[in-house]
Amino acid sequence: MLKLLNLLVSLRQLPPLSELTGDEERLLFQLKALFDRQGALSVLDVYDLIGGKSGTTAYRQLMSLKEKGLVVIEVDEADKRRRHVHFTDLANNVFRAVG
Fold first, then answer.
1. Is the pLDDT of residue 89 over 80?
2. Long-range CB pairs of 57-62, under 8 A, 24+ apart, other chains included
3. What is the structure's pLDDT at 11?
4. Number of Cα atoms under 13 Å in the Cβ half of residue 56
5. Looking at the whole model, is its pTM more than 0.85?
6. Which has more pLDDT, 72 or 57?
7. Which pLDDT score, from 0 to 100, does residue 50 have?
8. Which overall architecture, per CATH, does domain 2-98 show?
């Protein structure tokens, strides 16, 4: 158990995790868990995950993940009002490293 904790602490000190705030890191892993359950993510899912906070706060955190190269946001071709969230290779590498 101690080895696992040491590994996780070491991973958090490496980019990109070292560049994330606690809220951003939590959101990233919550998005991954939601993606694993439902197979797709939308910007509305982000708002639902950050319950109790304003939509502006949720959007800011999502944009920060985008700026840090962990997610991309794409417009739905069938409905231009909808936005989909996808993980980048960088985020997928983080998920693989964490297990």
1. yes
2. 61/23, 61/24, 61/27, 62/27
3. 57
4. 0
5. no
6. 72
7. 80
8. Orthogonal Bundle (1.10)
Q: Which residues partner with 44 through β-bridges?
A: none
Euclidean distance between CA atoms 18 and 90, whole angstroms: 13
Phi-psi region of 69 (alpha: psi -120 to 50; beta: other; left: phi over 0): left
Q: Is the peptide bond before 15 cis (omega within 30 degrees of 0)?
A: no
Q: Average pLDDT over the chain, rounded to whole?
A: 84
Short-list 53, 52, 38, 45, CA closest to 71: 45
What DSSP string runs through 31-53? HHHHHHHHS--BHHHHHHHTTTS
CB 83 within 8 A of CB 48: no
Least confident among 3-7, 16-20, 24-28, 67-71: 3-7
CB atoms within 10 A of CB 24: 19
- Phi first, then psi: give them for residue 72, nearest 5 degrees: -125, 150
Domains in the chain: boundaries: 2-98
